[in-house]
């Protein structure tokens, strides 16, 4: 049964290979030709839809430079379009923000963050790269490198069959590298989740699954050919010295200090990383709930009692007699590296944010240093 998830950016048909660049190039005239200038102009001006989304048709242009090939996703912010960049002759993903003031303002803040990430990039930030941005018919448009499917897409495609632990190790290392990079720049992502972690490539292989549908029929599951990933969606990213909103993070990945109203900082990202790693190992979100008290009770069932001091500082009344079952979750899904992975997850999912592992400490954990 498919679980309910709040998904800001659903992606479509991730396993359909795009046309090759050579085919696309043959179909397009050379920029600078009279034919190009005559044919590749912006479409007639249209009104936005009722919610402020840009209205388009496939095959049209988003400015003469970009040809719209497909819609990759849609969220509260707007839409993501796959486009062909006629100037650089490459595929790109363009985030077309709704023509509403609060979303336009948020997009400008995101552009500032993206430019900071790009400016300080030393080649291993694991953060999506901004190519360009422009304002088009009251829509802020942010041009990104085109990437593959999200890790959530992959889980869903495999009917929530977990990733092998060696692949989870590679995903975890890269995710922590991107978080460490952001924290070094005094940036807090605040919305880490499998939907916001994209594979660089869409290529995958099909492997037989352990489950059989019948005696003569074997199930298959897909695995990415490359483990390279990049972090996306910096629309909620906050500088540490900025005023912090009271609630951040998507529910399933929200740290206890946020729920308890105790304030938050860098450690909230590390709690989210811990939740993500368990989900990649088990195929299921650790805390599938939509309500605060139930969320905290689920934490206690898995991780033991929340420290009394944290409870006293909040306005919550909890039953603190739960039995921890955290190790069982890992043991059911991970055969090798069980002990070191469990220890890493305990460090990431520590209630007290002051005692939680930092991104750099997590990267130095034995789970990453000694994979055997």
UniProtKB/TrEMBL annotation:
GO CC terms: nucleus
Keyword Kinase in annotation: yes
PROSITE patterns, alphabetized: PROTEIN_KINASE_DOM, PROTEIN_KINASE_ST
Keyword Ribonucleoprotein: no
Record-linked CDD domains: PKc_CLK
InterPro entries: CLK_kinases, Kinase-like_dom_sf, Prot_kinase_dom, Ser/Thr_kinase_AS
GO function terms (MF aspect): ATP binding; protein serine/threonine kinase activity
Listed Basic and acidic residues bias regions: 36-51
Skewed-composition ranges (Basic residues): 1-11
Listed name of the protein: Protein kinase domain-containing protein
Organism of origin: Glycine max
